[in-house]
Amino acid sequence: MRYLPTFILIILLSQFSFGQSKIDSLKQDLNQSEEKEKAYIYFLLAKEVFYKDAYLLKSYSKKADSLAEKYQIDSIRVNVLNFLSYAATNTGRLNDAITYNKKALDISESKHLKKENISSHFFKGYILYATGQSDSSINVLNAAYKEALLSKELKIQLQCLNTIAANHLNQGQYKEALEKFTSAYQLADSLKLYDKLINLSLNIGTTFLYNEELDKAIEYFEKVIAQSDTSSITLAYASALNNMGSCYSRMAKHEKALEYFEKALPAYLKINNSLLIAQVYTNLGQSHFFLNNSELASKHLQSAIQLNRNNKSINQLIVNLLLIARLDISQKKFIQAKYHLDEALELTNKFNINYNKADLYQTYSLYYTNREQFKKALEYKEKELNIKDSIFDITRQQQISELQTKFETKQKLIENESLRKDIALNKLQIEKQNQNNNYLILLTFIVIILILILLNRARLKKKSHQIIQDQKSELEILNKTKDKFFSIIAHDLRSPFNALIGLSSLLQSSYDNLSDEVRKDYITDLNKASENAYGLLDNLLTWSMIQQGSIVIQRKEENISTLINECILPHQATAKLKHISIEYSETEEPIVSIDRFSIKTVILNLINNAIKFSHEGGIINISTENKGSKTIVSISDHGIGMSQEQIDQLFKIDQGYTTLGTNKEKGTGLGLILCHEFIQKNKGQIWVESTEKMGSTFKFSLNNMQV
């Protein structure tokens, strides 16, 4: 009975490293990144654990998929959906694997993502390979390989060649398998993917194992084990242990084989790959069977059968059924043995899996011999021998030997050629260095003289040109500053003076009809409006000085709640005229790093706008929210709102956008431009969220003080 060697399909994806330091670094980046950036970081984390932990791969991929879907990052989403299909395949969730892969195919096709679409077809072929559907897998992979050739996607070509070869090997088609492995090896070598050559070496060793050239197979597997870093278990290392056990088992050294299988099991368990865990259980069961440990053999084989049924891994399931049938025969459980044999034969024919047919016929022959049905036993023995003769003929033995010779010869040629190149290169470098020394001093003098002449001419020309440009730029800046200054004065002083005029007119017309208390209230409001107008004028004059370079923005520690309350007070009078209430939710007292006067101007402008565009009797809500290193200030009204077209015109000086308030209040449209400029100078951002007829919310971010 053959043991199950493992194929190492590590070249599924481009480049993966498994350093814990890199994973830790990516986790730190998560804490410092915006939500959109986290999609890419989770994608990188998934790549890091791809061959180490199927459950972590699933976790990271799901988080990356959720964020990629939210922010419409289609390329990342396709890749992580394929990661999820791989994880599902290797943890026995075939329906999930197919669903994920179909989503990846649909998105890559609809979004015209050529590379991702080819990769998705490769994963479809991989799912078919992993579940024993070799014919279908080869068809899908051949189509993907052709597309990868046309698109010059070399790494996907490598993936397809490797998995096509694995399918051929499962079918007992050694010549075809060797051709594909050879092509894959040559492609990896040409791309200088030296880390992939070790995985292909494992597959070549597995080919020798399948063809019973055990000494050659062991040589390759020992090389893989020696080159592996045991501090970080990889799929290649675990598979080499498993395949070494298979070699010693075929040599009938079952105790030694058992040692390697028992080392391979915890390695596969750490990787969380249920397909390969099932293989090791199968091999452990067979080893105990040959060592007459029937109870342990049955226990391991039942575990393997359960996993392979869940995984829908047909090739492994056939091997399990043959082994359990042999165990049943040895214990005279002939009804159970015949049931298992018939199921194995049905699966072999249905899925065209020829690799196990010789073992199947051998086990049938054993069954009929023990039932003393010798004619039937002889019939199946002849079938077994015919299969072996057709597979292990001299031509194939020669092809495999030739393949090994090609690899060894190529490696020696590469080493010799590299040595010759190094010697020739050193000689050439010495000759060039001697020659260069002869001309270097002369060339240096010539170059220095030319550079000095050119620099002198360029300096004179540049100096005169720069004087003109500086004067022109200065004039442009002064003109723009002047225009902005007068426009803002015209716009922002109008609102408080409207309040002054309105209240004074009301006092004038209704003075005799008002009580002393009401008069005092109006006079108080007039005083506040006057102070507001004066403060605003003072801020505008300060801003004009900043534009001229006379004053720089100086950010200091401020309590934003205190500043907001100061800004609400002067607007109460204007708000009262429209029966509007201003509500501020003080949930905390964030300390921010700002220039007090410029941010106060921003808040005053935004509250003024909220009053302007609110309906009579409305409410204006002001709130602050702490988000990490930022504080977000929100000023909301429930007024007329804006369309997307109107939102797009805000904060742009060249648009000159303005509109009337709910009481026909007029403005220049430059108040928001002033806000935008001040927020930028304070290292923050400003934006708006609005719905027509529902109101608007202006938000801006400020940097918190570092503790």
TrEMBL record:
The record's section on InterPro entries has:
HATPase_C_sf (IPR036890), HATPase_dom (IPR003594), His_kinase_dom (IPR005467), HisK_dim/P_dom (IPR003661), HisK_dim/P_sf (IPR036097), Sensor_HK_Regulatory (IPR050736), Sig_transdc_His_kin-like_C (IPR004358), TPR-like_helical_dom_sf (IPR011990)
Uppermost EC category: transferase
Q: What CDD domains does this protein map onto? A: HATPase, HisKA
Q: Which residues form the Histidine kinase domain?
A: 488-706
Q: Which domain of life is it from?
A: Bacteria
Molecular function (GO) terms listed? phosphorelay sensor kinase activity
Q: What is its EC number?
A: 2.7.13.3
Quote the catalytic activity from the record.
Answer: ATP + protein L-histidine = ADP + protein N-phospho-L-histidine
SUPFAM superfamilies recorded for this chain?
ATPase domain of HSP90 chaperone/DNA topoisomerase II/histidine kinase (SSF55874), Homodimeric domain of signal transducing histidine kinase (SSF47384), TPR-like (SSF48452)
Q: Which UniProt keywords apply?
A: Kinase, Membrane, Phosphoprotein, TPR repeat, Transferase, Transmembrane, Transmembrane helix, Two-component regulatory system
Transmembrane parts of this sequence = 439-456
Q: Where are the TPR repeats?
A: 198-231, 238-271, 278-311
Supply the name of the protein.
histidine kinase
Annotated organism of origin: Ancylomarina euxinus
